[in-house]
Design goal:
- The complex is a heterodimer of chains A (111) and B (199).
- By secondary structure, chain A is an alpha+beta fold.
- Helices cover 26% and strands 32% of the residues of chain A.
- Chain A has helices at residues 2-22, 62-65, 89-92; strands at residues 33-37, 40-44, 59-61, 74-79, 84-88, 97-102, 105-110.
- In chain A, strand 4 and strand 5 form a beta hairpin.
- Chain B has 199 residues and is of the alpha+beta class.
- Chain B has a domain at 87-199: Rieske Iron-sulfur Protein, CATH 2.102.10.
- Chain B has four helices and 16 strands.
- Chain B has a four-stranded mixed sheet with strand order 15-5-6-16. A four-stranded antiparallel sheet of chain B has the order 7-8-9-14, with helices on one face. A four-stranded antiparallel sheet of chain B has the order 10-11-12-13, with no helix packed on it.
- In chain B, a hairpin with a 6-residue loop joins strand 12 (158-160) and strand 13.
- The two termini of chain B are 30 Å apart.
- Classes of the chains: A alpha+beta (111), B alpha+beta (199).
- Strand 3 (59-61) of chain A pairs antiparallel with strand 4 of chain B, so a sheet runs across the interface.
Chain lengths: 111, 199
């Protein structure tokens, strides 16, 4: 179970980068580096940070966002008690994680 | 995921730290809604949006991967998927150590599924977004239905918004949102082979 968990963890973490590489003319990346996690093999296919995380997100009202978002653009929506925020998954395809704070609580939005 | 301070590795599926100084710790999962820009703007007009550099094309950069049912993960998957196709979408959550998943196809037909009489996974008819909520006492064990008005307990004459859990009619607290993971079946099943599937 852990073996499959680890393999799929890497798949989930890196599938978007992998697909992007396959779909573009980028040079081939190095062979995956194998390490063990809890006795099972983990495949590292990208250097840490190769998919740039968002550390200092900036937010805009809908009046400004209308020119940057399609109506049908899929979002992850966080609805708090004091504030609500939306994150485009098409944009997150290239970043995969946003370090943010909602209602004073640190959160990680992951995709 | 990797935290920058200790370089520990964390699972996105359940928030568990798998390796590193923080191994064994677990992040609290919070409820998130999958919706669209237009729906979110309509439901929460005071919300704000993560900025991005440009409008961009009207699709994901990885649309080819999403559209291809044979592509599962980076290395591909060879596994007995049992009840669903690998790229079928499910909505997963856990109660204690028991994992549950509700197939998107089931929600499109039935609109909601109760999980262990404690939770409900519901699809908003208007937007197709899926949310999960804890059920209040007056709803546990009672017949539920989803109408154009919302999630209803007819016997108690209570109606909640399927999008937000807010009370639309009746004397009841708002539904408490719980975290539900949107995943491909092959991924959820890999993590939770003992999952109870509603399909």
């Amino acid at each position: 179970m852990v073996k499959r968990l680890v393999a799929v963890l890497i798949c989930l973490l890196l599938v978007s980068a992998s697909v992007a590489a396959e779909d573009s003319d980028k040079p081939k990346r190095p062979e995956p580096v194998k390490t063990l996690i809890q006795g099972d093999t983990m495949y590292t296919v990208l250097e840490p940070g190769a998919i740039p995380a968002i550390f200092d997100p900036t937010f805009i009202p809908f009046s400004a966002a209308d020119s940057l978002y399609h109506d049908e653009e899929p979002l992850l929506a966080m609805v708090g008690t004091q504030e609500s925020r939306g994150y485009s998954t098409w944009h997150l395809d290239r970043h995969e994680i946003v370090n943010d704070v909602l209602d004073g609580r640190p959160i990680a939005i992951t995709w | 995921m990797q935290d920058m301070e200790t370089k520990s590795l964390w699972s996105q599926i359940n928030g568990e730290c798998l390796e590193g100084d923080l191994k064994g710790k677990r992040l609290d999962q919070v409820a998130v809604r999958h919706t669209t820009y237009a729906e979110f703007k309509s439901d929460f007009p005071e919300a704000v949006m993560l900025t991005k550099p440009e409008l961009g094309p009207a699709q994901s950069p990885y649309q080819n991967y999403f559209d291809d049912p044979s592509r599962m993960g980076i290395f591909g998957r060879v596994m007995d998927l049992q009840k669903l196709e690998g790229k079928d979408k499910v909505f997963g959550l856990s109660i204690g150590n028991q994992a549950y998943a509700v197939a998107e196809s089931y929600l499109k037909e039935h609109h909601f599924a109760t999980i262990g009489e404690k939770m409900v996974v519901v699809m908003d008819e208007k937007s197709g977004s899926v949310s999960a909520f804890n059920l209040p006492e007056e709803a546990k064990g009672e017949k539920l239905s989803v109408t154009a008005d919302g999630l209803t307990v007819p016997i108690a004459n209570v109606v909640w918004s399927t999008a937000t859990g807010a009370v639309i009619n009746g004397d009841s607290p708002a539904l408490e949102p719980v975290s539900v993971v949107t995943a491909y079946w092959f991924a959820w099943f890999s993590f939770f082979p003992e999952t109870v599937l509603v399909h």
